[in-house]
Design a protein that fits this description.
The complex is a heterodimer of chains A (287) and B (349).
Chain A: H1 2-21, H2 23-50, H3 68-75, H4 77-110, H5 116-124, H6 131-149, H7 157-181, H8 185-193, H9 198-209, H10 211-226, H11 230-233, H12 243-253, H13 258-280, H14 283-286
Chain B: E1 4-13, E2 16-26, E3 31-35, H1 42-50, E4 57-62, E5 65-66, E6 77-80, H2 92-102, H3 107-120, H4 136-149, E7 154-158, H5 166-183, E8 187-191, H6 194-200, E9 203-208, E10 211-216, H7 218-223, H8 228-233, E11 238-245, E12 248-251, E13 256-258, E14 268-271, E15 277-279, E16 286-297, E17 301-308, E18 313-319, E19 334-339, E20 345-347
Parallel strand pairs in B: 3-8, 3-9, 6-7, 7-8
Antiparallel strand pairs in B: 1-2, 1-4, 4-5, 9-10, 11-12, 11-14, 12-13, 14-20, 15-19, 16-17, 16-19, 17-18
Classes of the chains: A mainly alpha (287), B alpha+beta (349).
Chain lengths: 287, 349
Amino acid sequence: MATSATTGADADVHAPVRRGRFPWARCLHSTFVGLMYFFMLCPLIFVVWLSFFEDAILYFPPSGYTLQWYVKAWANDAFANGFVFSLQVAVLAAICGVVLGVLAALGIVRYRFAGSRAANTLLLSPLLIPGIVAGIAIYLAYLAAENFLDMDIVGTYGGLVIAHVCLTIPWTVRLVSASMAGLDPSIEEAARNLGASGRVAFLRITLPMLRPAIVAAALFSFVVSFENLELSLSLVGPGRTTLPIAIMQYLEFNLDPTIAAVASVQILLLGIIMLVTDRFVKLSQVV
Amino acid sequence: MAKVSIERLKKQFGGSVAVSDFSLDIADGELVAFLGPSGCGKTTTLRMIAGFIEPTAGTIRIGDVDVTPLPVHKRNTGMVFQRYALFPHMTVAENVSFGLEMHKVPAAERDARIRTVLDMVRMTQLRDRYPRQLSGGQQQRVAIARALAIQPKVFLLDEPLSNLDAKLRVEVREEIRALQQRLGLTTIFVTHDQEEALAIADRMAIMHDGKVQQVGAPQTLYEQPANLFVADFLGKMNFFRGAPDGAAFVTERGTRIAAQSGAGGARHLGVRPERVRLAAQPGDGNALPGTVESAVYLGSLLEVRVQLDSGETVSSQVANGAPRGQAPIGTGSRVYACFEPADCVLFAE
């Protein structure tokens, strides 16, 4: 009785002291976190805000607000076509990149072969090379391949998708191999012990356990491909323009909030995809 | 269920030998524990039986079938892993169902079998839970049910209790033993915990450095250890170095100890602490005079270390059941460490 009373009193005495000792530290912490968020979100907020300005030339404060730039963006064929084309390329590149990336991760994590580390580094290297350099390198390689194979590659749909697959593979390899290395190997062993062949054990047990990593990898692959500008620049052909390139071309001659409207739609779309994905797979667990 | 016979099994990893010349016959319905310190090859042997590791040489028969060339999924063994290894994305019932699906058990029968095995481990209530919603003990029970659902020919347990806390360990261990006896399961139980092995095994195989040191009933191994390693590993033992002299054994310090079996080349004599009585007067048998050096209170036992007049030390375990009021054994008191010649075990090297 006496002991517990003392402990209770102690706790009561100490708790407020501890909480009150560094009020400025907590304050500083909150301020810092708040500033970080503001810093990161600032460009997005401004882009969305600008897209509603009435004036064709940016002017502060705006003389009024309007939705006309959204209408204009919608009516612009370059944007609409670019959007659809980018979507197609990104979906295809994400699917191919995830399939290849999962297989590559499987090989690297499960089978230690001569040069498996080198293979890992090679597969991650597209992250390190500037996009514009990679784009030109791929362009030159395509030209050589065209001469050799006697077929069109540069400017084709397939050529662009293949280039984007290179861009998406590192994300899958990174996320999936990390997730695979964290799996308890005895789980797959248990499946084989229960009568599953190696292939069935992988498909029914291991693959579902990798699902969060694979979904996250697909999402990142999609985003990376969808918003890529530098790599695509040298690889697109006439009539096949991605959305980022369409935006850049528009910017060369115009500076009205249409661009902001297009960008806002893009932010909204990617934001929705992220939120929907997060409902099914907690992205924070994997990334 | 089936008998298992292992013949001259060997496994070499590169230059190092993990298991060498392992031969053992396990009878139908018998529980054999592989016991040994870590790295002794017990888990490697179990994994060779399950088929996860390919032996360098030797054969494994389950029933009358030579399973050595068969892959894991065709051996029909039921294995329980140390870290449960439940499928995290499946419910308890789905976990159990997986093996039945793999064995192509028709859906109607599957349900009945899931219910039976979950009843056996008292997990029926939680059949729709996911593994992450279960405690360690519950997860291991599900793992046991999952392994037994496929009606394996052999039940293999790889340190199944190591991740459980002390009280639960005893509980689950008794459950495993009861289940094994009720169903007549041929079982191999790998453990590094001797108490576990002593408590539930019909026979134990003590391994060290990839070799089987001794196989036998727990009592045989404890009372008649075949060599110094087994004697030292299993329980506690007082050792004296020396040489036999006629019917007696003379230690390096010159203490004469009467021993029953005067084996020729004996170099060591051992006697269990619980066989050593402490008395004020010498009685029959061996009585070595000495001084109490320390007395450690262990709850149900008192462990007393006696410094013999010859300079050697002997420890004695005394049951803590003496009537209250009797003077406790004090440090520094003069005593005789007494033990029967029949309780002495002699070892060559």
